[in-house]
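sorry for the late reply, my laptop died twice this morning and i had to redo everyting from scratch. anyway the thing you sent over, i finally got around to it. pasting the sequence first so we're on the same page, its 188 residues, then the predicted structure underneath. double check i copied it right bc i was rushing
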Amino acid sequence: MDRKQLYTAGIGILSVLFSLAVFRSSLPDTGRFFLGVAGVGIFLWAVTILFTEWRAGRREGWMDDLLARAGRASGKRANQLEWLNEDGSVIRTWELYQKVSALIGRDYKENRVDIDLGQSEYATMVDVHHAVLNYADGDWYVEDLGSRNGVSVKKAADGRKYKISSERPCKLQMGDEILIGMCRLRLQ
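ok and here's the structure:
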């Protein structure tokens, strides 16, 4: 559970305790009723939020697990990142073999990155430290580092493009494309 979910669960529990205390208090019946209803309403709100997040996480986890199993069954492991131009030709390749992390952005003064997109005609759309690739448990993940223009991922499995949240890494599969500004990076 993340911090937001813990706070929501805490609020839900406190609202139940509040409702029980109100019903046992010596307040007039109408006061107990309205305060009790407010406590139950807050509890239901907390349960709804937690259930919605659980379902969203469960769906994402299901798809990620399915894609991971498919990648592991094929025995293939992504070990390079390709920079593609508009027609899909490879401009440049970076080796990821035996790396656990790669910083994506553009070199600027003393700030150096592993994957430099500063030579792109769209370099102004790329932050100095835009995103990071991390390798964990046999999979690559991309994470937006709070960039101005964000990061999207085009999944090879369904061809759809997803904008990723800056606080939640996105699991990548072989053939997925990372879209940073107008730059396309494909995991191979």
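The chain has two domains: 3-74, 80-187.
thats about all i looked at so far, will dig more tmrw
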